[in-house]
Automatic annotation (TrEMBL):
Residues 444-453 have a biased composition (Polar residues). InterPro entries: CK1_Ser-Thr_kinase (IPR050235), Kinase-like_dom_sf (IPR011009), Prot_kinase_dom (IPR000719). It holds the Pfam family Pkinase. Residues 189-204, 250-262, 462-474 have a biased composition (Basic and acidic residues). Residues 189-262, 409-507 are annotated as: Disordered. This is Protein kinase domain-containing protein. PANTHER family: CASEIN KINASE-RELATED (PTHR11909). GO terms for molecular function: ATP binding; protein kinase activity.
Length: 507
């Protein structure tokens, strides 16, 4: 029989304080089935309650350097839970030595999928172009909800699992929100924060585990319920508000009046978080944008730079991989997107039009600052053109599916319950829409000098695979998380769970 130690087992193993969990032991009622992966910070297990339905549980040591980011992840995920391109949040909490989050179980991450493809060094154009479109779609969903991810890389995208007869094993989901940051703030959140900060601090003994657990949970549900209401049926917060203020005297108002009113309503509720002049380094060296190396505040365009580097790596090596002679940031500054996507082994990959597209994307991204809405549309068009040139359809097998007989694959696909056409297949105007377009942008004045050294970096500019996180960044303190404030069990509101997969992707 499995054992559940309410104080958390997580026996310390060795002098470094690494936590060791036994397969078969139970945490928060979930039995550990096997270890899926070990990330930069935590261990991820496949878990189950009933041996029928399986989930993923990520566990992080509370005592790790920089602190665990699990509460931040819970915070972000509960706000994104209505979207189908992020794993469903099930429950999260903490024990004496560690914090955990239970999520929808996903399939392999992109790095694993590549490793088990027919040519593990190089995905075909038909495969990487389709993956790139899906990754761009998931990333825009995150941005449209007011968050930047700040750690875009292949390990943080995975395909889903086939469940309920739904074929989600060909759908790419984005996860790992431990470094995410809001770039849009809800004005009431700021007011609440002010109010909260004027209240006396709780003493450390005032844990939420026991007495106040119910109160906290209901607060979370209420807060989430409100947010869901605001978002229902719309693309982010803004649209629903637009709808709700257009009731009186609608017929007499011009379209311009309506636009002005909806812009006013948006600005009454939300505002851009001001870019800080300096930040600590956030992300992973291999994929970080030049701004991340400069330690500037990261915006949507920075996630897209990381995405572009990640896509290049799907078919070739990045020039800064496996070298420690030159600083990574210097190589990034020298490399143009056109050069990165040009592959001597496959000189016919890019057409003249695609070369121009890459130059336009580079120019567009270089012109973006923290507040800018990047032109996702031209990036999508480039990937779409690669897809068309490689003569694949969305039903064609991906490279990791090609090991079997292609005929059989098509039959297998046909036999699966048909899914509604996902939105990245027919995105319409989706990539053009900016839900924050009418929000006032503060003036942007980037700093040119970095005050904080990048932690743990070799003098040679060595590439670091592991994500860098430090709790000294005020944004982390602000976004998150007094670790003491994590309730022992935070459950997703049932309406969130029910609705999260039912809603069609927003147009
Ligand atoms: N819901 C999930 N289902 C299946 N596998 C998962 C899930 N979440 C995470 N994993 C696996 O565990 C790995 C590490 O998870 P995650 O990225 O969340 O942790 P991390 O410690 O923040 O990692 P890193 O710092 O290396 O990015 C992922 O790359 C993925 O392979
Ligand atoms: Mg990760």
């Amino acid at each position: 029989m499995s054992k559940d130690n309410p104080n958390g087992s997580g026996n310390e193993n060795g002098a470094d304080g690494e936590l060791k969990f036994e397969i078969g032991e139970t945490i928060a009622g979930f039995k550990l089935v096997n270890k899926i992966d070990e990330g930069g910070f935590g261990q991820v297990f496949k878990v189950t309650k009933d041996d029928k339905t399986f989930y993923a549980m990520k566990i992080e040591n509370s005592a790790m350097e920089g602190g665990s980011a699990i509460k931040l992840e819970i915070n972000v995920l509960t706000q994104l839970n209505h979207e189908s391109v992020f794993p469903k949040f099930i429950i999260g909490g903490r024990r004496a030595r560690y914090q955990y989050i239970v999520l929808e179980l996903l399939g392999d991450n992109l790095r694993m999928l590549k490793a088990r493809s027919i040519h593990p060094d190089c995905w075909s154009d038909g495969t990487w172009s389709r993956l790139a479109i899906q990754c761009l779609y998931a990333l825009k969903k995150m941005h449209d909800n007011g968050f930047v991810h700040r750690d875009i890389k292949p390990n943080n995208f995975a395909v889903g699992m086939d469940s309920d007869g739904q074929n989600r094993s060909r759908v790419v989901l984005l996860f790992d929100f431990g470094l995410a940051r809001k770039f849009i703030n809800h004005k009431t959140e700021d007011k609440n924060k002010e109010a909260a900060s004027s209240k006396p601090e709780k003493s450390p003994g005032d844990s939420l585990f026991s007495k106040n657990n119910n109160t906290k949970q209901s607060k979370l549900v209420k807060k989430k319920g409100t947010k869901l209401d605001k978002k229902a049926g719309g693309n982010g917060f803004a649209n629903k508000k637009r709808g709700s203020i257009m009731t009186k005297g609608e017929s007499t108002r011009t379209a311009e009046d309506k636009e002005k009113e909806s812009a006013r309503a948006l600005n009454d509720k939300f505002k851009f978080r001001i870019a800080r002049p300096h930040t600590d380094f956030r992300g992973t060296f291999q994929y970080a944008s030049a701004n991340a190396h400069e330690q500037l505040e990261l915006g949507r365009a920075d996630d897209i730079w990381s995405l572009m580097y990640m896509v290049v790596e799907m078919f070739t090596e990045l020039p800064w991989a496996n070298q420690d002679t030159f600083p990574v940031e210097d190589l990034k500054n020298q490399a143009t997107l056109l050069r990165l996507f040009t592959d001597s082994k496959n000189p016919n990959r890019l057409t003249a039009k695609m070369n121009e597209q890459l130059e336009a994307i580079e120019k567009m991204l270089k012109g973006c600052n923290y507040y800018s809405f990047p032109n996702y549309e031209i990036i999508h068009q480039f990937f779409k053109d690669v897809m068309t040139k490689s003569k694949v359809s969305w039903n064609s097998p991906f490279d990791w599916e090609k090991t079997g007989n292609v005929e059989e694959f098509s039959k297998d696909q046909r036999n699966k319950k048909p899914v509604k056409v996902p939105q990245w297949e027919a995105p319409g105007d989706y990539f053009k829409q900016d839900p924050w377009s009418t929000l006032k942008r503060p003036n942007y004045s980037p700093s040119t000098t970095s005050q904080h050294p990048i932690p743990n970096r070799s003098k040679k500019g060595q590439i670091r695979e592991k994500t860098v996180l430090s709790k000294e960044d005020p944004s982390q303190a602000e976004d998150a998380i007094s670790l003491k404030k994590i309730p022992s069990d935070v459950q997703a509101p049932t309406n969130v769970l029910r609705n999260s997969r039912e809603k069609p992707p927003n147009a």
